[in-house]
Amino acid sequence: MTSRERATAPDRHRIVVLALDGVIPFELGIPQRIFNGARTPERHPLYEVVTCSVRPPGPVRTDADFAILVEHGPEALATADTVVIPASYELGPVHDEGRLTPELASALARIRPGTRLVAICTGGYVLAAAGLLDGRPATTHWSSAEHFQRLFPRVRVDADVLFIDDGDILTSAGVAAGIDLCVHVVRRDHGTAVANEVARRTVVPPHRDGGQAQYIHRPLPEPQLATTRAARAWALGRLDQPLQLRDMAEQESMSVRTFTRRFREEVGVSPGQWLTQQRVERARHLLESTDLSVDQVARDAGFGTAQSMRQHLLTAVGVTPTRYRRTFRVSVSASRGG
């Protein structure tokens, strides 16, 4: 980067990833892949991502047959704007009684007040053992949820969601849900245009709502069974129009009852919830990337009125359409490289 580019580049949000013994390499790599891919329209990186250990720089054991070389010690935690704790195959530095080892407790004490905390899968055990999740909602991998709740009864565990955003603390279910959570953080920080670009480059869905079910009973329908894929594609092309459940069911030649059951099995949410999610995403995209009035965005996204869109956007992201546009507006000329 040239001196002129450095002068015009925004300050980068510093993310420190804490690699614990037994860390799962796949989940350790998620923050690097997602956050390092977030760029301005001029291709300036929006995040700085470093990895640290609870010990001085050196090897950290993984759950695979290799170790990784970590170049930063626990002092890096004191420099973080966001700390990410990926899953460890075993509970690692968390005792069976739900207590932190002195080494990890000392490392966590370096984190500055107000730092955003993100846990992927069983990384949530670390936050819970530190008492940071007491009285708060959290999730983890569905297979660990019962044990997690038993070990930490003061945590409000929800095993049925992909991730939970509780403001300054975010937790996710296992494996791919960590990708969803990190893309969500990018979207929360920089809007849908940046998040969708990261998702495209990573070849993952641009948005899976945090409330979507972790465990979908039929993720891949049996070949002889009809799917709801055509109905979803049909609906996405008509979000600006009134859409009835029976109309979607007719696209698959199913009864409403069968279609609703099959849809929930495949997607993890009801058709109505899915439609609302897609309309919110359409509205966010239009607010960011066009100069359409709020009323026109509401019509094009299928909400009908600005008041209806306002209510849905407040529910989804906690801000009004006007505030959202002011925060995440990306000029059309900039996005086109002009």
Order of helices and strands: HEHEEEEHEHEHEEEHHHHHHHHHH
Task: Give the DSSP E fraction (strand runs of 2 or more residues).
Answer: 5-15%
Shape type: globular
CATH topology call of the largest domain: Rossmann fold
Low-confidence stretches: 1-9, 216-224, 331-338
**Structurally, how many domains make up the residues?**
3
Give the CATH H-level superfamily of the largest domain. Class I glutamine amidotransferase (GATase) domain
Structural class, by secondary structure, is alpha/beta
Largest sheet, in brief, is: 6 strands, mixed
Task: Kindly describe this structure.
With 338 residues, this protein is of the alpha/beta class. It folds into 3 domains: 3-202, Class I glutamine amidotransferase (GATase) domain (Rossmann fold, 3-Layer(aba) Sandwich), CATH 3.40.50.880; 229-268; 273-335, Arc Repressor Mutant, subunit A. It contains 15 helices and 10 strands. Strands 2-1-5-6-10-9 form a 6-stranded mixed β-sheet. Strand 3 (58-61) and strand 4 form a beta hairpin. Helix 8 (229-236) packs across helix 9, helix 9 packs across helix 10 and helix 12 (294-300) crosses helix 13. The chain is globular and about 60 Å long. It starts with a helix and ends with a helix. The model is unreliable at 1-9, 216-224 and 331-338 (pLDDT under 50).
